[in-house]
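Form 7-S
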Amino acid sequence: MVDLVLENDGREPFDRIGGHAQGLLVQVPDDDPLRTQDTARDTGDGKAPFGTRKPGLGIPDDFGVDIEAERLTGFVETLHGDQPARNADLRRSEKRFELAVSATDEGIWEWEHDAGCHALYLSPRCAQLLGYEAGALPCSPRGILRTLDGAVRRELLAALRAHLRQGSALDCELAWRRRDGTPAWFHLVGKTEFDAAGRPHRTAGAVSDVTSLRRARQEVADSHARLDSLYRNASIGMALMDEEGRYLQANAEFCRITGYPEHVLCGASCPALTPPEFALRDVQAMVAASLGERMVAYEKEYIRPSGERVPVVVTTAAVGGSEAGQRWVLVEDVSARKAEQRAIREANATNESLIAAMPDMLFQLDGDLREAQAENSQGGRPDEAWSLPSTVIDGSSTIDFSDVPHYLPMPDLAAFA
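Output:
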């Protein structure tokens, strides 16, 4: 037999127990004040099925449990012990959430639509992110919107409308000035809970400061723009190749040198550009680049669509990071340089032939056609080998050089260098 402590004249415990203990037999002593005179369902032995209620009281005519003590004790403990346990679980959950939120750099916000436009919760971290002191940040949707510039306010409202009406994700980056006026960028995310009628009930989410990330992304974009401008306008050809030797991209100068457009070079049917005699040198350069060795330029030729061979100087550089195996090929067109070198060689050959055809005696005259230096093949003065007056040699008199073919000025060989 287990005694129960009744509250509120026994109504509340009975109402809570009655739905879970139908069919149990109850017994109440005869002198119990709750026991009434006769009941319609009294069996005469003081026992009645559990749940038999007395008129006006709403409780069974008998209140006691005649079952095994352990079974009833467990039931009663469950009845009276669930609420404290649930409260403790709730407190632990709240502490866990607060600890997790405090460990992040994100601010937490919540907007309860049912409670009206003023029901906006902002965690203390939200105020810190925007440069506000504790309690100074407006905690209403209207007050938050007033802290935004016009264009940013319209952007946020458009994102909220699309999220609430169309179900699109609430995920946007906003330019938001802090309280001291410094510009900043914030990443806003959220999710809405709807009621059974499809109306928004609660929207909650987080906000984080992404100013540093935004600046880093902008710096990377600017760097890519500068490199892309250099790549496209470089005076040397540049092409990116994979480990199989296929072209992935090529700038305008490389296309001009080879004579093929970029879509042909990067296509599946790219023609062979390198003559067979240079294939081994290309492989050696590719291996050296993959091993991280110092880049060494070498000469080779490319074959244009017309069959013309273009002399070039090639440098190969490996690409690191996640694109390992790829390599840059830097190509300089040396056709003009080669043409100049040929012209110089031809001029030197012409000079040598002229010198070989000249007589043994050479003169070097000054600007007034006066002798500055003269010698003959024997190393002496020309007047020693030629019976000429010394006045001709020292310039005090003149001589008709048209009649003396041996008296020719020494050509300036420096002009042909």
